[in-house]
């Protein structure tokens, strides 16, 4: 038990670091003024049409994702993953912190906006990778992608791109029904839907090479 506890603590530290970087990434993507991130696109558009805060809608969306996981996995769903229901409030705090950290950003040049968007996507992808690497509880938004990827036998990054693209399409439909036009979304939303998945795959490959190299060095 003495050797397991420090390992468990390290896993949760890595997991929290992942949530932190996700919060920074979403904040930076939003501050690029090119549209919010795919994971927050539906709640953001709905918050513009309903008397409900974006944070409450994100919590409800995460709860929906959690129950989708339960439906797919069934009785084999790990008991510790029920803690996903506690991730929402922490995630919200990190997003608010990220918005505060980047509050000074208000780019006017399109090139600068693109740079901020790309960096935000990298931070968001890093956060997702760290959560997966922690091998503990998951953010429901990533947990549902992992469950689907495992079910269909596809790479996480590829499923992530399709999943984010679906969220953006839903947000677009909600926007057209509610406003008759595109509101709360931009080209950055579409770009990040594909860039985040790409960067997750890239960071995963780099991370796997580092882990493999360390194993070889330890075995030598």
From TrEMBL:
Q: In the record, what lineage is assigned to the organism producing the protein? A: Bacteria, Bacillati, Bacillota, Bacilli, Bacillales
Please give the start and end residues of each transmembrane region. Answer: 12-30, 50-73, 85-104, 110-130, 161-182, 188-207
Q: Which InterPro entries match?
A: YczE/YyaS-like
Q: What's the protein here called?
A: YitT family protein
Q: Which UniProt keywords apply?
A: Membrane, Transmembrane, Transmembrane helix
